Description:
Layout: E1 7-11, H1 15-26, E2 31-35, H2 38-47, E3 52-56, H3 64-73, E4 82-86, H4 91-99, E5 104-107, H5 112-126
Parallel strand pairs: 1-2, 1-3, 3-4, 4-5
Helix pairs in contact: 2-3
Amino acid sequence: MKxxxxxVLLVDDSSTNNLLLESALKGQNFKISTAxxxxxxxxxxxxxxxxxxLLDIMMPGLSGYDVLEEMTKDxxxxxxxxxxxxxxxxxxxxxxxxxxxAADYFEKPLKLDKLILRVKELVKELV
Length: 127
């Protein structure tokens, strides 16, 4: 982590979901970057120092799984922790996310206090 304030990338095709997460995390001393597509997320990841990604699975174009796969192929991005945030609740979805390298998996509607705790834990591990 190069920044004193951790930079978290929020990726969700719903700007409402991004705003909800942004307001919850900004109060916890995080810098926030956002993307609304998988393609945009990869551009942000390649141009910025991102410490953690909150990634939706179901998006038009590149899905969250596609983004995660691309991250594992890039030596600059492979070590960035990813928390999948999704409305999908099937065990197979969580299993696939973990197999692709996700650090965690949270279902919507989100329990924000629990999610914030997990984000803090993962960022602390980077120090």
